[in-house]
């Protein structure tokens, strides 16, 4: 009998029992509610993150207490607002939502949190928020983006070079695998043929770019035409394995060094007692 890993399908007493076990792990998929060209639904990033998180948790459910929260459906997507269909938080809003989730998990009894991200605009803010909340609440908060974890495996599956990108072959294939009824297959040609050259990238520099500058007219970055459900299943399988490996990695889940505690500056690494 398989172990149910989806938080939303449990009762409160069942969740409390999971949280009471040593090193209980909560997994939070986070994505966005934003435009994904003419062919993909606005929930794409959240749906793909949730699919990868659930599949990864199922691989380890017999080894550790783990539950996957419902996907957080909005993130930082202000760069997609010109295309419509987009709801965005700002940094303070995103940090506030995640802070409330971490506080709640700690109150329930969970010992660690893995944030599984499906949206590029969340990468930088999550890196900061995860560090800050780990210090604030004294428990490991780890954030990752599954597409980045499988970069080496993508060329063996994708036909196009621009993957992962946005509404590209990778994302479209995943949505064909998890929610084919939401993919507008008749719009794949439209997604690419109207797109003029984007603003060039400037490696080493950071500034705000609207997605109407990065992927003008269609809002699609990459070519979704070679997408298939079979490729989506392969992408998700790689992501699930990478997430499962992270869940098992002991060093990744060390207790955060309490660097802000009084007198910590009088110690060194040897002075940090490990659990």
Question: What would you say about this model in short?
Answer:
With 275 residues, this protein is of the alpha/beta class. The protein contains 9 helices and 4 strands; from the N terminus they run αβαβαβαβααααα. Strands 2-1-3-4 form a 4-stranded parallel sheet, with helices on both faces.
Q: Kindly, what is the distance between the CA atoms of the first and last residues, rounded to a whole number of angstroms?
A: 33 Å
Our estimate of the beta-strand percent is 5-15%
* Averaged pLDDT: 94
Q: Note the overall shape.
A: globular
Q: Can you count the helices?
A: 9
Reading side by side through the largest sheet, how are the strands ordered? Answer: 2-1-3-4
The SSE order reads HEHEHEHEHHHHH
Q: In total, how many beta strands? A: 4
Give the helix/strand class: alpha/beta
- The unreliable regions are none
| Alpha carbon gyration radius | 20 Å
Helix content: 25-40%
Largest sheet: 4 strands, parallel
What features would you describe in this structure?
There is one protein chain. By secondary structure, the protein is of the alpha/beta class. It has helices at residues 12-19, 44-60, 91-108, 123-137, 146-149, 169-178, 188-193, 211-214, 229-248; strands at 25-30, 66-68, 112-117, 141-144. Helix 6 crosses helix 9.
């Amino acid at each position: 009998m398989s172990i149910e890993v989806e938080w939303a399908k449990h009762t409160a007493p069942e969740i409390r029992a999971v949280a009471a076990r040593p090193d209980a792990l909560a997994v939070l998929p986070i994505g966005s509610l934003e435009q994904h060209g003419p062919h993909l639904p606005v929930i794409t990033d959240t749906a793909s993150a949730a699919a990868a998180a659930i599949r990864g948790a199922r691989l380890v459910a017999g080894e550790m207490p783990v539950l996957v929260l419902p996907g957080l459906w909005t993130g930082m997507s202000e760069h997609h607002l010109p295309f419509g269909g987009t709801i965005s938080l700002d940094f303070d809003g995103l940090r506030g939502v995640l802070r409330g989730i971490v506080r709640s998990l700690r109150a329930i009894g969970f010992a660690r949190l893995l944030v599984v991200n499906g949206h590029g605009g969340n990468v930088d803010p999550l890196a900061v928020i995860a560090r800050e909340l780990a210090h604030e609440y004294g428990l490991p908060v780890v954030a990752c983006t599954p597409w980045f974890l499988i970069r080496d495996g993508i060329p063996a599956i994708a036909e196009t070079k621009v993957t992962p990108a946005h509404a590209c072959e990778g994302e479209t294939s995943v949505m064909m695998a998890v929610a084919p009824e939401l993919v507008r297959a008749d719009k794949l040609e439209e997604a690419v043929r109207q797109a003029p050259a984007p603003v060039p990238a400037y490696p080493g520099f950071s500034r705000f770019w609207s997605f109407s500058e990065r992927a003008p007219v269609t809002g699609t970055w990459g070519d979704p035409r070679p997408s298939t459900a079979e490729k989506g299943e392969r992408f998700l399988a790689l992501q699930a394995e990478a997430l499962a490996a992270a869940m098992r990695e002991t060093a990744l889940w060390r207790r955060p060094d309490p660097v802000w505690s009084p007198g910590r500056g009088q110690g060194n690494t040897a002075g940090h007692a490990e659990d």
